[in-house]
Design brief:
By secondary structure, the chain is α/β, with parallel strands linked by helices. 33% of the residues lie in helices and 14% in strands.
């Protein structure tokens, strides 16, 4: 007998065996006799509620529905019920009858019961909770139908189930291949009467980013010198909020800078195809002794690569030679940028790139770009420093749940000297016994902006990640805000 058949049938047989009392009564599930919901409630198209989470569930006897509703209460998520075209009758659900509909479907790998309608507006959600009852230790096939008929690329999926007594087992991981481009969280089984507190604790423990509030507010209390905190991207991945920029670093200098940064505690390195140093960055990462999965590497496609993006992405992967790319950005807007981004979306689905975003997109550019793409950019990297604070853009991006990152955090080529000797910054730095560079980087993080200062000097690199033992006062933040001159130091 084939293994899959055994694995579907055995739990069912065990269930029946467990269920049989000496009096040979049928098993008692939490809903003793599965009575399908006679009149399913209308299922409106989900509308964003200000939250970015969606709860999608299937339920025949309303146990899973109860858990789904408690998740909604805890998260302010939008709810969508999967309704089969043909509702399940009690006889369909009879687990003691080997030819009942549920039994036949679960034993047929190709079964995909049709579902009513489609869950619209998926682009509005970053996190999808996916609930189902356990049927012979597996998810019902209607869940497979849902996953195959919706594009969940780039979403974080959180499976949950209810059952009589079985755990979630491999019922959740069996679903991964049906939405390979999603980030799957480990699933969780609940009993029908699980308390609201348990559900809230579970959600809290996952540190999900679904309410748009923390992309622009960093918890700096968790950072120590040499160990920067992380921010959760809308792709579900965590990214350090401080990194090493590698623009203009080449050859051994670049390799050594990457290694110095990783030795100093940096876990994020920023490069780009146009920098011409992806090979050196990759080599530094590989030779650092730090496990690959602890390091977050960003690279970028340049506009002259947008017309043939697949070849360009392959080249980045080959040059970096670190397995996958944590974050790929478009370097700046240009002809075919949507085409290039769509190619990056495909690489996300294939697991070769984990997160994607853009660079040099300001309010108008981002607003025009978003409707054309399926995966919201997790991050926008723009020119930001005390003389060009980009305040409106930063707010706009944070409101969209997009992380903001500063290039040229120290003012950029030809301008660094003036910024680093600014009297206000110098005074603030002296009062904290810190350097002006450290004050600027701390200012970035306190206003929710990720910074990637570039340096090849190991002492400076170390100094740049030693900004977690002091904080700027509100008054100091206001004084630095007043330094804004709206003075851009580069053309894009
Ligand atoms: C066809 C069928 C198969 C089931 N198989 C299992 C099982 O393998 N293990 C288990 O603990 N419960 C099993 N149950 C019980 C359900 O998982 C449980 O009652 C669930 O909470 C029902 O959820 P719902 O009310 O949302 O439909 C089965 C129920 C049905 C109808």
């Amino acid at each position: 007998m084939k293994m899959w058949l055994l694995s579907v049938l055995l739990p069912g047989l065990m269930l029946t065996a467990n269920a049989c009392s000496p009096a040979d009564e049928p098993i008692k599930t939490e809903e003793p006799t599965p009575i399908p919901d006679p009149e399913p409630e209308p299922n409106p198209d989900p509308q964003p509620s200000g939250g970015r989470a969606l709860v999608v569930y299937f339920s025949c006897t309303n146990t899973t529905k109860g858990i789904a509703e408690r998740i909604v209460e805890a998260t302010d998520a939008v709810i969508w019920r999967i309704e089969p075209e043909v509702a399940y009758t009690s006889e369909d659900l009879n687990y003691n009858n080997s030819s009942s509909r549920a039994n036949r479907e679960q034993n047929d790998p190709a079964a995909r019961p049709a579902i009513k309608g489609k869950c619209e507006n998926l682009a509005d959600y970053d996190v999808v909770f996916l609930g189902y009852p356990i049927w012979w230790s597996k998810a019902p096939k209607v869940i497979f139908s849902f996953l195959e008929s919706h594009d969940l690329t780039g979403k974080t999926i959180v499976p949950f189930c209810t059952s009589h007594s079985s755990g979630i087992g491999s019922s959740d991981s069996d679903l991964h291949r049906l939405a390979a481009g999603a980030v799957w969280q480990p699933g969780r089984r609940f009993s029908g009467n699980e308390s609201k507190e348990t559900i809230e604790d579970w959600i809290e423990s996952m540190n999900l980013n679904f309410n748009n509030t923390n992309t622009g507010v960093f918890d700096l209390s968790t950072g120590t010198n040499g160990n920067a905190p992380t921010v959760k991207l809308s792709s579900g991945y965590d990214m350090p909020i401080l990194g090493l920029g590698t623009y203009s670093l080449h050859g051994a200098t670049c390799i050594n800078s990457v290694k110095s940064a990783l030795a100093a505690g940096f876990r994020k390195i920023d490069t780009a195809s146009i920098y011409g140093n992806e090979e050196e960055v990759g080599q530094g990462v590989r030779e650092s002794g730090v496990p690959r999965e602890e390091i977050f590497v960003t690279t970028k496609l340049y506009p002259n690569q947008f017309s043939n993006p697949e070849a360009a992405i392959e080249e980045c992967l080959r040059k970096l030679d670190i397995g996958y790319i944590d974050l790929m950005l478009l370097h700046h807007p240009g002809t075919n940028d949507v085409k290039a981004y769509k190619a990056m979306e495909k690489y996300v689905a294939a697991g070769k790139i984990r997160s994607i975003g853009v660079s040099c997109y300001y309010v108008k550019e981002i607003d025009e770009f978003l409707p054309n793409v399926d995966i919201k950019p997790v991050l926008v990297q723009n020119e930001i420093h005390p003389y060009y604070q980009d305040t409106e853009v930063v707010k706009h991006l944070h409101d969209l749940g997009i992380v903001v990152e500063a290039w040229y955090p120290l003012g950029g080529r030809g301008h660094q000297k003036e910024l680093l000797s600014d009297p206000v910054l110098s005074e603030i730095a002296a009062s904290h016994n810190k350097s002006v560079v450290q004050v600027i980087l701390r200012w970035d993080l306190q206003r929710g902006v990720v910074a990637i200062p570039g340096s090849s000097n190991p002492d400076h690199i170390k100094e740049n990640i030693s900004i977690f033992d002091f904080s700027l006062t509100d008054d100091e933040m206001v004084r630095i805000a007043a330094l804004n001159r709206n003075e851009k130091h580069d053309w894009y």
